[in-house]
Amino acid sequence: MNGSIRVGNLFGIPFYVNPSWFLVLALVTFDFGGDLTNFSGLSGVLPWFLGFVTALLLFASVLAHELGHSFVAIQQGIEVKSITLFLFGGLASLEKESKSPLEAFLVAIAGPAVSLLLFALLYAVQANANLASSLASIVGLLASINLALALFNLIPGLPLDGGNILKALVWQVTDNPHKGVLFASRVGQFFGWGGIIYGVLPILLYGSFNGIWFALIGLFLLQNAGMSAQSAMVQDQLDGLTAEDAIIANSPIVFADLSLREFANEYIIGKNQWRKFVVTDEAGQLLGVVIVDDIKTVPTSNWPVTPVRALMKSVKTFKTVQSDHSLLEVVKIMEKEQLDQLPVVSDNGVVMGILDTASIRSILEERKKAIEGKG
Questions:
Q1: Alpha-carbon dihedral of residues 203, 209, 212, 213, nearest 10 degrees?
Q2: Is a pLDDT exceeding 70 seen at residue 36?
């Protein structure tokens, strides 16, 4: 999450806390510390210290929940990019989706399973161990929190774990992961609106802010479910398309042996669309790139006898994609490596053209119009 502070690694996983985490830490510390002062007879700094410890243990429970997801994902060969604690709990950021509905289900259910296990252990300790009243209160609170954490996350709407479970079930039935995400996102939006209404109505009717947390959680669900739904629709529209489908007409490609005069006349003068061209040999194999502005470094009198390859910048690690590569995977590659263009090559390495973010958006718009036209 943006603005989060890295505090170290856990089992090789980068661990972050969002600034909002400190707000909840303070609230829990003072709330539970105040309860201990009022009802347990403790005085001085001890109740506040115990409140602080309880707050840390609360977040340790959230962290254990996220580690449950993470360990199952790692067993499936999925990299866990980070774990972040924030205002409403935690988030394990995974490198990619699971390969099957069953694997997605196992990742999703692992977090609530850990929370339910912690609830059972803590409840057993509270019921059977002869603890001091203050310690019994802490153990009881942590047991309740883990139960609440499990049950809340099992609500069947994204971005909650229950939403990911629902996504996996719909994926299994429809054999389409994007339909699973879209359905679970819509359910998440429904619960989000429900939380907002439940929290806002008491304010409007009675001036009571007792439900404000429901409204904030509802807003959180609504925003994140909306983003998931939008992403799923885009992915569904890209499904079945290949890199070749997004190649730009008249892509910026020139031959290395073309003279600068021919290059200027045929590709530059009167055409301001491209500032960089991919350079190939006569067989169409990728050699490098040429920057249009670099032509100014050569006197115009030398243009007829100077080939493009004289200004070409060789690129040893130039990223390309095969023409039959899934366009959805291409989009993920471009996002991961922060690229705005990619050369598309055939099986034998011949450059077929260039695709970019604009050409992909154009395809999405065409598909959207086609779907609306059918509707």
A1: -150
A2: no
pTM > 0.90: no
What whole-number distance in Å separates Cα of residue 32 and Cα of residue 29? Answer: 6
* Range with lowest mean pLDDT among 45-54, 140-149, 239-248, 302-311: 45-54
Catalytic residue among 66, 103, 262, 365: 66
Task: Give which of 57, 69, 75, 135 is closest to 108, Cα–Cα.
Answer: 69
- Confirm if 189 and 215 have CB atoms less than 8 A apart: no
d(CA 306, CA 250): 24
* Token pair of 40 as six digits: 């347990």
Long-range contacts for 56-61 (Cβ within 8 Å, ≥24 apart)? 56/25, 57/138, 57/142, 58/28, 58/142, 58/145, 59/21, 59/25, 59/85, 61/115, 61/118, 61/142, 61/145, 61/146, 61/149
Q: Can you say how many angstroms the Cα of residue 78 is from the centroid of all Cα atoms in its chain? A: 14
Q: pLDDT, tens digit, for every residue of 257-278? A: 999 999 999 988 888 778 889 9
Question: Three-state SS for 132?
Answer: coil
Mean of the per-residue pLDDT values of the chain:
86
**Mapping DSSP to helix (H, G, I), strand (E, B) and coil, where does residue 342 land?**
strand
Tell me how far apart the alpha carbons of residues 63 and 67 are, in angstroms, rounded to a whole number. Answer: 6
Angle (deg, nearest 10), helices 161-174 and 101-128: 150
Q: 66 an active-site residue?
A: yes
73-77, 131-135, 159-163, 263-267, range with the lowest pLDDT: 131-135
Residue type, 218: G
Residues in contact with 329: Cβ distance below 8 Å, sequence separation at least 6, in sequence order: none
